[in-house]
Amino acid sequence: MLRDITLGQYYPVDSPVHRLDPRTKVILTFLYIIAVFLVGNLWLYLPVAAYLAFATWMARLPAGMMLRSLRPMRVLLVITFVLNLFFFSGAQELVRIGSIVIWREGLLNALIFTFRLIFLVTGSSILTLTTAPVTLTDGLERLASPLRIIRFPAHEMAMMMTIALRFIPTLIEEADKIMKAQTARGADFETGNLMARARAMIPLLVPLFISAFRRAGDLAMAMEARCYRGGEGRTRLHQLKYSRRDALALLSMLALYLMILLPGWLA
Amino acid sequence: MPIVLEQLSHHYRSCPRVSVALEDISLTIHDGELLALIGHTGSGKSTLAQHLNGLLEPTSGRVLVDGEDINQKGARRRALRFRVGLVFQYPEHQLFEETVFKDIAFGPKNMGLTGQQVDQRVREAMARVGLDFEEMKDRSPFELSGGQMRRVALAGVLAMQPRVLVLDEPTAGLDPRARDFLLGDIKRLNQEGTTVVMISHAMDDVARLATRVAVLEKGRLVMQGSTLEVFSQQERLAAMGLDIPDGFKLARRLRQAGLNMADHVHPEEIADALAAAIRGGGGDAA
Question: Which of B87, B227, B277, B283 is the most buried (most CB within 10 A)?
Answer without folding.
Answer: B87
